[in-house]
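Fill-in record for Glycosyltransferase.
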Amino acid sequence: MTRVAVVTIAHGRHEHWALQRAALERSRRRPDERILVVMDDPVLAREARAAGGTRVVETDLDAGSLPLARARNLGAREALARGADVLVLLDVDCLPAPGLVDAYADAASAAATREHLLSGPVTYLDPAPAGGYDLDGLASLDRPHPARPAPPPGDVVIGGSHDLFWSLSFALTADLWRRIGGFHEAYVGYGGEDTDFAWTARSLDVPMAWVGSARAFHQHHPIEDPPRRHLDAILRNGALFHDRWGSWPMRGWLDAFVDEGLVERTASGGYRRSGA
């Protein structure tokens, strides 16, 4: 029987992790392995071990920044070592619908989509009401993000732009993970590593598939737009992406930084901190 592992990485967001764990307990098909990679958060690691049912992997920061790419690779490596045939990578803020694990497992096993990079629709939730989100009522809040394909439950749409891939919720077979090679660990901190992963898949002729029944609900948390506290990481990772692929990612954020005077364009068409 196909073994499915759900891999989550986290730093902070303890309540979000606890509610995701509760949502996974309601899955029509529970994962065979749950892997939590904790980035420099010993309290969360203790809480997760005490709750049981989760394999906890710990890792440190990288020069003060969250090692998102390395953490995902560590989680996948642990899942593969424990015999996983299908990897589901789920952001700590995401609550899986009851059918998410099952839908990803089915798509990863189907002849038409098992060689595809699988993504499901994600709904961004409003702030939680008093008492928190009601897991039984999530389906009534289903309004997938309009920038990504969102087929209805039961449908799968094959193809589409790899630029629309995001790492909030995706799945693939163990063999395909090995073929892609995981995330490029030179990306450190926020931004770029997921687009690089998708472009690597595209360079290997791995198409996208959008799985309508693999729905997730992103728990609300405050955000910056543009994410100014991640400016240096975005510049560094954007330059790395340009070196690898000849194009700058995250252009919307970078151009917003230019408009705010935080970043300037270079003569070669790149970006750097203003006055640097």
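KEY FINDING: The helical segments are 14-25, 42-51, 68-81, 100-109, 174-180, 193-203, 231-245, 251-259.
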